[in-house]
Amino acid sequence: MIDFSKLDKVIHEKGRLGIVTLLASRGEAWPFQDLKAELGMSDGNLITHLRTLNRVGYVDSEKIDGEGRPQTHYEFTKAGRKAFEAYLAILEEIVDMGR
Known about the structure:
The protein is α+β, with helices and mostly antiparallel strands. It has a single domain, classed as Arc Repressor Mutant, subunit A (Orthogonal Bundle), CATH 1.10.10.10. It is 59% helix and 14% strand. Strands 1-3-2 form a 3-stranded antiparallel β-sheet. The longest helix has 21 residues.
């Protein structure tokens, strides 16, 4: 039987699941504005989720000075990638069981 308690509650929330899925989809950091546009989130909602992911050690941020005002870029930490892979493994078990 699948142990549903192993589903990471931080990742499982819909907004954060979208963020980590995007972060996993490419090997480089995502600018805040790109995440916002792709996910259709408000600034406040997105930053709240990013802070939660940062607080548990799943995401790092870096301010980059460029043309105009600085941009903040976000990327997975090793712990974040490991947690996401474990999350996906449990989802795969659920899908297999449901077939």
